Amino acid sequence: MNEWYFIVNPAAGHGKGLRIWRSIEKELQKVEISYRSFLTQHEGHAEVLARQISAMQDDRLKRLIIIGGDGTIHEVLNGLKEIDHVQLSFVPAGHWNDAAKGLGIHRHDVLKEVRKQKRMLTKTFSLGSFQDHAESPQSVLFLNHIGAGFDAHVLRKTVHFRGKKWLKRLKLGFIIYPLSFLHSLWSFKPFDLALFIEKEKKVFRQVWFVIVCNHPYYGGGLEAAPEASARQPGFQTIVVTDLNPFKVLLFLSAMVFRKHLTMKGVTLFQHEEAYLEADEKILFHADGEVIGATPVFVKASERTLKLRA
Q1: Is the link from the previous residue into 92 a cis peptide, with omega within 30 of 0?
Q2: Cα gap 67→71, rounded to integer Å
Q3: CA neighbours closer than 13 Å in the CB half-sphere of residue 175
Q4: Where do the domains of the chain lie?
Q5: Burial of 305: CB neighbours in 10 Å, binned 0-12, 13-18, 19+
Q6: Is 200 a catalytic residue?
Q7: How many C-beta neighbours within 10 Å does residue 186 have?
Q8: Hey, which CATH number is domain 4-120, 3.40.50.10330, 3.40.710.10, 3.90.1720.10, 3.40.50.1170?
Q9: One of 25, 32, 289, 302 is an active-site residue; which one?
């Protein structure tokens, strides 16, 4: 049997990543599967490890399993040299796990494969990519979604939350995101957006959310774009305008029940390419990681993800 490679984010899900890895490792040792494991030590490390493993193995890389959250798989996808030539599996261990929900991945799939209780099949999924503009030579892949506006603002607040280290030492890290969200309800400033889809320009005022979805799930299981599918190229993009703090809560509550698309100020687009330009630099995130600021060009990638699940 070929050697298996694991990239593990031990900090994912407040330590869930490490616990899951230890249970899988015990099973690997029982059935004597040859493996090598690499534990991430900081943000961006999974991308470096994926690049090193890819270079080390060249065309002979057969099996790579990622244990972590949406950010971990995002980094690995951008670190691998040839995604479509890798037998890749994903064990969800993060907070949100939107990728697992959107692609139908279950936490125990790999464990069942090791125990020979399940035969894994290879499924092909579409990926998105983004760059500064259409002619830019540098592009970044994403699997779940890109979000510009309020949600990226909250994520940035969470990353730079004052007293974050102390709260984590006191085992109170779970309150950082809710506090950041509440603060952002009053500190976020809506913006004006020019959205170019298939060379047609749409202008929006007082924008709070722009969500480019590769599959339905967003924010830990909310179906932002119920008809989006990673099994085919293209996106559904939602633009939300004219909110206030109370209406933000109303919008997110409506999303729980899939009623948000009929709300006033919510516009839905289907497309394969889009260019987002705001009246100022607006933060955006990809797969839950704040990556840059507008303008940004988004398109369906020519590369695909072949996932064993």
Answers
A1: no
A2: 11
A3: 11
A4: 4-120, 128-302
A5: buried
A6: no
A7: 8
A8: 3.40.50.10330
A9: 289
Instruction: Report the first-to-last Cα separation within the chain, whole angstroms.
Output: 18
User: Is domain 128-302 given the CATH code 2.60.200.40 in the classification?
Assistant: yes
Report which listed range, 46-60, 71-85, 180-194, is most confident. Answer: 180-194
CA distances from 276 to 187, 209, 258 (A): 22, 12, 25
**63 near 3, Cβ under 8 Å?**
yes
Q: What pLDDT, in 10s, does the model give residues 80-122?
A: 877 666 788 999 998 889 999 999 998 888 888 888 867 778 8
Tokens of 86: 């890798």
pLDDT digits (tens, 9 = 90+) for 5-40: 999 999 998 899 999 999 999 999 999 888 999 999
Cβ-in-10-Å burial (0-12, 13-18, 19+) of 296 comes to buried
Whether the CB-CB separation of 36 and 61 falls below 8 Å is answered with: no
Secondary structure class of 3 (helix, strand, coil): coil
Other Cβ atoms closer than 10 A to 131: 17
